[in-house]
Amino acid sequence: MKRIFSVLLIVLLVIPALGTTTFASSTVKAKVTESSTYFDGEQRDLNGFNISNNNYFRLRDVAEYFSGTASQFDITWNKANNAIEIITGQAYTPEKKASSNYYSRNRNYSATLSTSKVLVNGQLQSITAYNIDENNYVQLRDLAVKIPFDIEYDVQSDRISLFSKVPDHAYRVKTAVKTESNAVSSYFPRWKSTATSYLVNNNDGTVSVLEANKEVTIESYNEKFELTGNKSIPFELPIFGGFYSGEKYNYIAFGQENREENDSKEVIRIVRYDKSFNRVDSVSIKGGESYTVSPFDSGSGSMAEAGDTLVFHTSRTRYTTEDKLNHQSQLTIIVNTQTMTVTNDLGRFQKNHVSHSFDQYVLFDGATHVLVDHGDAYPRSIVLNKGNGTSYNEVDLFNIPGKIGANTTGVSIGGFEMSSANYIVAMNTIDHSLVKEYTSYEMVGLEKDQRDIVLSVLPKANLSSTAVNHITLAKYVGTNQIASIPKLVKITDDKMMVLWQEFDKENHPGDLKYVLIDGAGATTGGIQTIKNFVLSESSPIVSGDKIVWYTNNKGSRLFYSIPLN
């Protein structure tokens, strides 16, 4: 049944068998609460009670679920002073023997006023406390101001929501649809997959979040990151292949498998929308012309445009070959957007052929497009191709040791941008000298997959592998930390930002790191640290005078920003 939620929300602290506590004579009834409880948007099961129409919860649960956030705090019991001591900003230390009391909703319990003191960061707090079954309970709203964290209550759903403190320059926002987590991890996949979350700069101070799950959803936010509207678009084919926000139009790629190798079957459709996401037209690619069995397979895909030319640089699994295998490679599609027709040969082996291609990027340098792939075979390198669809200049940016076709490579690309004089790839890499053998599944001899943050910089004036400059921004190999795949954000022609997330060896997320670089990849300041910021799959963008991105995590969405001035 629904219970009235008072302005005063109270939490319980369990301190089992910690000595004698003196209690006042006032005793009231307590019943197990029926309210659901959420932490940062994620539902949690808690021991909770209702006392005199106020809801109470186990403080140690609150400490555990806030651990690792901006609202984390630890708890100790000071027997000599008969005091509960709370230290903010410290990770929670679990009880050596956790309480396992079971409480029935069908009976009443006795709650007695307690004389135990409560200290927050050494300061005595005036907080009313209760005791149930030798466990101490204290008021939550008083603590929320001190720790701090936020509390909301939804009467209709009987839902209590607790939110960790939002760091400076971050914003917890409302969503129109249920969020799916897109936070980065310390896991390095052998190959990428299509990104399903994007942040769009609408060039008027507003931004839009586009996500592809069972349908494509677009949620718009104003300058204050307030939700102002939303729209949904059905998939036109079963597989989502990527999104691109162009100067005048938006583009979404869809695809479907062609295991039967039907030449006339549509395998990829690139759909054009206006800036309000109203459908305009599309272009289709058939199985026979592209030799495609599975579109977008084991790759990320990227689009770019210049004038009336759109390039979609993606991946595919090809038709069965003489060795009875379906080999994977890149697929580069060039579209004339005036006529919405494909203008290049999509054959089995394109002029910029990369096999296997596990990640793809494309930019335009004037009217010429520049491609980057993560190859594990032909070539086995991070490779750049600059050309026009009929001919390319190929440059190996980072040669990868190991046998041809071994899927494990020990490197991952995080971004590709160009300055006025250079092409710059942000990536990470292991210490390859530690690897005895690269196989399709492991790097033999490598105890821990730790990778340094590295730039590969190629001068535009010298498209040769001997001209590539490798710059190590941060070393993690052999340390007690792991760094995520880095992000690369272009601010101006000669100013960029590289960002990455740190993790401990148990894969718990740590600090965000970032550094500014110039057009040659040289750092222009020290590496900066921001606590409680979380990177996501969605690439950061420049919006006004700040770098902005969003992250879905634990059922809620936060926008993060880094001021540029």
Could you say which overall geometry the principal axes of the C-alpha atoms support?
elongated
Query: How much helicity do the residues have?
Result: under 10%
Strand order of the largest sheet: 1-6-5-2-9-12-13
DSSP E strands, number: 47
How many whole angstroms does the radius of gyration measure?
28 Å
Low-confidence parts, pLDDT < 50 over ≥5 residues? 1-25
The overall average pLDDT, rounded, is 91
In a nutshell, what does this entry contain?
The protein has 565 residues and is mostly beta strands. Helix content is 3%, strand content 51%.
Characterization of the model:
By secondary structure, the protein is mainly beta. Helices cover 3% and strands 51% of the residues. It contains three helices and 47 strands. The chain has a seven-stranded mixed β-barrel. Strands 25, 26, 27, 28 and 29 form a five-stranded antiparallel β-sheet that branches. The longest helix has 8 residues, at 59-66. The chain is elongated, with a radius of gyration of 28 Å. Mean pLDDT is 91; it is low at 1-25.
Task: Give a quick set of tags describing it.
single chain, 565 residues, mainly beta, seven-stranded mixed beta barrel, five-stranded antiparallel β-sheet, 3% helix, disordered N terminus
List the helices and strands and how they pair.
Elements: E1 10-13, E2 23-32, E3 36-39, E4 42-44, E5 48-51, E6 54-58, H1 59-66, E7 73-78, E8 83-88, E9 109-114, E10 117-120, E11 123-125, E12 129-132, E13 135-139, H2 140-146, E14 149-154, E15 159-164, E16 170-173, E17 197-201, E18 207-212, E19 215-221, E20 227-234, E21 239-245, E22 250-255, E23 266-273, E24 279-286, H3 287-290, E25 292-295, E26 302-306, E27 309-318, E28 328-336, E29 341-342, E30 355-365, E31 368-378, E32 381-387, E33 392-399, E34 411-418, E35 422-429, E36 437-438, E37 443-444, E38 452-459, E39 469-474, E40 481-483, E41 487-492, E42 495-504, E43 509-518, E44 528-530, E45 541-543, E46 546-553, E47 556-563
Parallel strand pairs: 1-6, 3-15, 8-10
Antiparallel strand pairs: 1-13, 2-5, 2-9, 3-4, 5-6, 7-8, 9-12, 10-11, 12-13, 14-15, 16-47, 17-18, 18-19, 19-20, 21-22, 22-23, 23-24, 25-27, 26-27, 27-28, 28-29, 30-31, 31-32, 32-33, 34-35, 35-38, 36-37, 38-39, 40-42, 41-42, 42-43, 43-44, 45-46, 46-47
